[in-house]
Each structure stands twice: as structure tokens, then as C-alpha cells.
Amino acid sequence: MGQAMLSESDRRILREIQKDGRITNQELASRCGLSASACLDRLRRLREQGYITGFMALLDPAKLDRSLMMFIEVLLDRTTRETIKQFAAAIVTLPEVLECHMVAGGFDYLIKVRVRDMAAYRNFLAETLVQMPGVRETRTYPVLEEVKNDIALPI
Question: Which residues form a coiled coil (predicted)?
Fold first, then answer.
């Protein structure tokens, strides 16, 4: 079901809970111009239909000793179904990897990693990433400044 099937009330609910996932149903209903019961019903339906996939707390990486962020291009030695399957199975087990995307272009995957510092990154690269199945080459881009880091979708 696409966004065209959403009512304006549904869109308002989604915008508000992206801003504050801990909002009470009463406050959400008030902000969206709905009764509390109608809001709760819509919220339940949006979860059941898969528009809302979960709720989580956003943590400060620096306070948790994960202040260094890197983007890494990964080129596989071959892009067979088996190599792709093996790489994907291995990469999802790594806690340092926050995101992994198969991309089209000059490399196969773009991954986002958070580690303590450059020494931790060197260890991750040498002991883990380049040892993974099918990895032929990597290119690393350390993040100097996060200009925008917004996970809210435009609705």
C-alpha cells in the first residue's frame, strides 16, 4: 500500500511520531485533531499495515565511545549469487556496521561503520572486513562533520 492510500490524518500521525516516538496517545490525538480512540485505531492500523516498523531510542555515539564514523565502499572479487549471499550473511553480524547497502556503480556495497577511534577502525578493517568472504577492495571515507543526520522520512 503506497503513500497515496494514506489519509491526511494518517500522514499527520506519522509526522508526529517521527518527531517523538514516546508521545502519549492523548497528545498525539490532540496534535492531529482526532479523538483519542480514533487516533489509537489509526496508529494500530498503521503498525499492522507495516507503515510503522518499530520504535527506538536515539543514542549519543560520543557518550558510548563510538564517535568515529566511516563510510566504506566494498568491492567484491566476483558478484555471484553465492558470494553476495556469503557477504550479506557475514556483514549483518558485525556490530560496528550500522548500515549496509548494495549499490549500482563502481563498487558493490556501501557500509556505514561507527567505532571508538582510528586504531579501532584499523583493527576492524584488517581483522574483520578484508577477511570477509569475497572482499577484494575497500575505500574508506572518514566523516569529519555530520552536517545533517535526520532519520525522519518526508511525509
Answer: none
Can you say whether the dihedral through the CA atoms of 8, 10, 15, 20 is positive or negative?
Answer: positive
Check whether residue 42 and residue 66 sit in a common domain. Answer: no
Integer Cα distance of 14 and 12 in angstroms: 5
Angle at Cα 147 formed by Cα 106 and Cα 116, nearest 5°?
80
Q: What does the alpha-carbon distance between residue 150 and residue 105 come to, in Å, rounded to a whole number? A: 25
C-beta of residue 23 within 8 angstroms of C-beta of residue 29: no
Range of the domain at 100: 62-142
Contact 42, 5 (CB under 8 A): no
Mean pLDDT for the chain overall: 95
Grid coordinates in use for 86? 556469503
List of long-range contacts for 18-23, beta carbons under 8 Å, 24+ apart = 18/151, 18/152, 18/153, 18/155, 19/152, 21/55, 21/56, 22/55
Query: Whole-angstrom Cα distance, residue 11 to residue 142?
Result: 36
CATH number of the domain where residue 17 is located: 1.10.10.10
CB 97 within 8 A of CB 111: yes
pLDDT digits (tens, 9 = 90+) for 29-87: 999 999 999 999 999 999 999 999 999 999 999 999 999 999 999 999 999 999 999 99
